[in-house]
Write a structure and sequence with these properties.
The chain is an alpha/beta fold. The protein has ten helices and 18 strands. The relative contact order is 0.15.
Length: 340
């Protein structure tokens, strides 16, 4: 019997409680990781509240886990006991479909989310397929690395996947958990960066994260002044916006890319796309190779999220802190099961 101890919700919107389950025998291609840190993301709240209708209870939340490999299956490749790795939104995929075989594992139709049908990282240990246990560069600060595994890759992937150039101009909508990392990555990428925020109080902070310009998303005149100037606009918020006004900020061939889980339909007029040959797209985190590339890039440029730390035993307080909008800008839980 292999016991894993974690903080689990037994139903929608319920407080997390200590929970122990038998993880069974380790699968041949899986690794077991002793969790040291785990980030908290808005997606944890969405799964807790069953906002997306796919939650399965009881569930140990957490999908930004960092720790050391403590056990490996007989068919694991490239990892060793004691190695420090991270597990993000996904912990497995089928490894034989067209998407997996072409390196697009995150688009696999059988991809296994780390906390849907699987127990996540608010625990003393977590399991994952070896391909999804991403080695962490030595120069990376592990205490703040967790949020890179979901929030970081979510905003890095569009820059990498769509071939954004250092000479391009990139806009970021929303200066929060995702947005502040998007500003850091886009600046390090070499781009001219414009931050869009509904809060003028975040102007100087946005510039500190890497924005060259800050525009109020509520100021139609300011939005009009930057019309036809951006090559990519990354939307990190999950609320309805003035989509037509945002599309007008794009140059011909520009792309509006959505990574915030906006639940309402996005109304787009055909002519707003046709006349400038513009695109609207979205993406779900990234594949293992892109995750590894992102971590190396972050280590090289010393990019780390701005985090607040809570002991994992105070996970409910940390979730409330996030839900209230007080987090600046990501939360990391420090595993403290040895103290319970």
């Amino acid at each position: 019997m292999t016991e894993i101890h974690g903080w689990a919700a037994r139903g929608p919107k319920q407080k997390l409680e200590l929970y122990t389950f038998d993880a069974g025998q380790l699968a041949p291609e899986d690794v077991e990781i002793a969790v040291e840190y785990c980030g908290i993301c808005h997606s944890d709240l969405s799964i807790l509240n069953n906002d997306w209708g796919n939650s399965q209870y009881p569930v140990i939340l957490g999908h930004e886990a960092v720790g050391r490999v403590v056990a490996i299956g007989a068919q694991v490749k490239g990892l060793r006991i004691g190695q420090r790795v991270g597990v993000g939104w996904n912990s497995g995929s089928c490894m034989h479909c067209h998407e997996c075989m072409t390196g697009q594992n995150n688009l696999c139709l059988e991809v296994l989310p780390t906390m849907v049908g699987h127990q996540g990282g608010f625990a003393d240990k977590i399991r994952a397929h070896w391909a999804w246990a991403i080695p962490l560069p030595d120069k990376l600060d592990i205490s703040s690395a967790g949020p890179l595994l979901c929030g970081g890759i979510t905003v890095f992937s569009p820059l990498y996947t769509f071939g954004i150039k250092p000479t391009d101009r990139v806009g970021v909508v929303g200066i929060g958990g995702l947005g502040h990392m998007a500003l850091k990555f886009a600046k390090a990428w070499g781009c001219e960066v414009t931050a869009f925020s509904s809060s003028e109080s975040k102007t100087e902070e946005a510039k500190g994260f890497g924005a060259h310009h800050v525009v109020s998303s509520r100021d139609s005149a300011a939005m009009g002044k930057i019309a036809n100037s951006l090559d990519m606009l990354i939307v990190t918020v999950n609320v309805p916006l003035d989509w037509s006004a945002l599309l007008k900020t794009l140059r011909p061939n520009g792309r509006l890319h959505v990574v915030g889980a906006v639940l309402e339909a996005i109304p787009i007029a055909a002519f707003d796309l046709i006349m400038g040959q513009k695109s609207v797209s979205g993406s779900p985190t990234g594949n293992p190779a892109t995750l590894a590339t992102m971590l190396e890039f972050a280590a090289r440029h010393q990019i780390s999220p701005q985090v607040e730390h809570f002991p994992m035993s105070q996970v409910n307080e940390a979730l409330e802190h996030l839900a209230s909008g007080k987090a600046r800008y990501r939360i990391v839980l420090d595993a403290d099961f040895n103290l319970l």
